[in-house]
Amino acid sequence: MKQLTLNFKERIGQLLKPARPAKDTESGVLTQAERAFFLARERAAIGRWAEELAAGFLQAQGLKILERNVRERFSELDLIALEENVLVFVEVRCRRKNPLMSAQDSIGPLKWKRLVRGAELYTLRRRWRGEWRLDLVGVDVDRERWHLRWLRYLEMEGADDRGC
């Protein structure tokens, strides 16, 4: 009986796919066309490019993208995804590489509060009863390369206390 139980557990273990490890970072090289719109400083095109890059990265990590660029009363939610049973609101930030401030450092308390309010309103309107969280995908770009960083389960200490 003990041997039969062990064999069953081994077979189940072989049938189940192991969880894919989530990556936190990814880097790449800019194409000629991407370099051109970065040089032209077309903010809308840069934002769309960064959101596409982030969406592709998150899908490769196992998240299902549900919606993009959802406008709620207080903010715009860049990406809304589902990871298992958790609703994930993803803010995408893109900046030229700067030694003083990276893309993830560019969120202040006011932007943070707007994101939280937007996410709360989204969950209320859609009657979401499960867990949800806020994530950030920061994309830093220099002349020829980009570097993406995914920060999960964001919290901003003191954002609610500042009256923003």
TrEMBL record:
It comes from the Bacteria. SUPFAM superfamilies: Restriction endonuclease-like. One of its GO terms (molecular function) is nucleic acid binding. Pfam families: UPF0102. InterPro entries: Restrct_endonuc-II-like, tRNA_endonuc-like_dom_sf, UPF0102_YraN-like. HAMAP family: UPF0102. PANTHER family: UPF0102 PROTEIN YRAN. Belongs to the UPF0102 family. This is UPF0102 protein FYJ74_00695.
